[in-house]
Amino acid sequence: MLIGLVGRGIQQSRTPRMHMAEGAAQGHRILYQILDADAFPRGEAPLEKIVDAAELCGFAGLNVTFPYKIDVMAFLDELSPNARAIGAVNTVVFRNGRRIGHNTDKWGFEEGFRRNLPDAKMGHVLQIGAGGAGVAVAHALLSLGADRLTITDTNTARAAALVTQLSQNAGAAQVDAIGLDQLPEIAPTGVVNATPMGMAKLPGSAYPVELLHPDLWVADIVYFPLETELLAAARAAGCRVLLGSGMAVYQAVRAYELFTGRKPDPMRMKATFDAFIS
Ligand code: NAD
């Protein structure tokens, strides 16, 4: 089975290895090809052409990452309810001449959360970062039962747009946006970093670490490094923490199921991810 990952700057992605190792463990040969738009031998190629080429070559599906999760929707025949609600696709399945878009990032964050912070009180959650990944994370936080979800982003228009979008799926939950300068004025039960801050190339913490206290749980979706400055400070302050690897592994678990129709072993996929990190 051929599968691909479409994005930019994705040569170091851990996703191909997770799928191929899981396939091999199930006696199912998977070739997972990186389709890096920054590294095509003839230079730029429009996204539509990449999707067409993958389908023509018999790929079973594609994972889609930055910066194509929204743009790819224009080239699909159908969207899953999750993908439609979130407005982004990270998994495309080619089946019977149709292209079906899914979003497994949301379920990935949720499942990582359920398994690693099972008793965390949702209550009032603060999410910093309303970009491509943040949209799926925010929907996941509402599904996990947040009573109030506050979004902040240096790009205030982006935070406001996410609040407007979330309001349509929020049910009884309250959703609002605040400025970064207002962070000391709220008392959340949990904090989620969905910005790139904390990555090896962007050190620092988007959440002021002096606001951390032992009753908070803190999640980061950055996974390179796994222990970001925010998570290290949160641990030191006595907080329960959730690593970015949970979302990365479980989005792949769900995508594997969609591509192959088989149930993967999540622990085995996590072990592959962890081995690659170390
Ligand atoms: P993005 O660029 O689409 O969005 C990031 C958002 O954060 C932007 O809206 C930006 O304005 C905001 N931002 C940046 N610095 C900020 C700060 N200091 N304070 C407040 N807001 C700030 O990026 P993305 O695709 O959403 O990815 C964000 C991070 O999540 C990346 O590090 C990426 O590697 C990681 N990620 C992890 C997973 C996973 O499975 N764990 C999946 C996708 C992305």
CATH topology of the largest domain: Rossmann fold
Structural class: alpha/beta
> Distance between the terminal alpha carbons, to the nearest Å?
28 Å
Written as H for each helix and E for each strand, in order along the chain, the element string is EHEHEEHEEHEHEHEEEHEHH
Number of helices: 9
- Under the CATH scheme, which class of the largest domain? Alpha Beta
Write the layout of secondary structure elements.
Elements: E1 2-7, H1 15-25, E2 31-36, H2 47-56, E3 61-64, E4 78-79, H3 81-86, E5 91-95, E6 98-102, H4 105-116, E7 124-128, H5 132-143, E8 148-152, H6 156-167, E9 174-177, E10 190-193, E11 217-220, H7 229-236, E12 240-242, H8 245-260, H9 266-277
Parallel strand pairs: 1-2, 1-3, 4-6, 7-8, 7-10, 8-9, 10-11, 11-12
Antiparallel strand pairs: 3-5, 5-6
Helix pairs in contact: 1-9, 4-5, 4-8, 8-9
Bound molecules: nicotinamide-adenine-dinucleotide.
Nicotinamide-adenine-dinucleotide (NAD) binds next to helix 5 and helix 8.
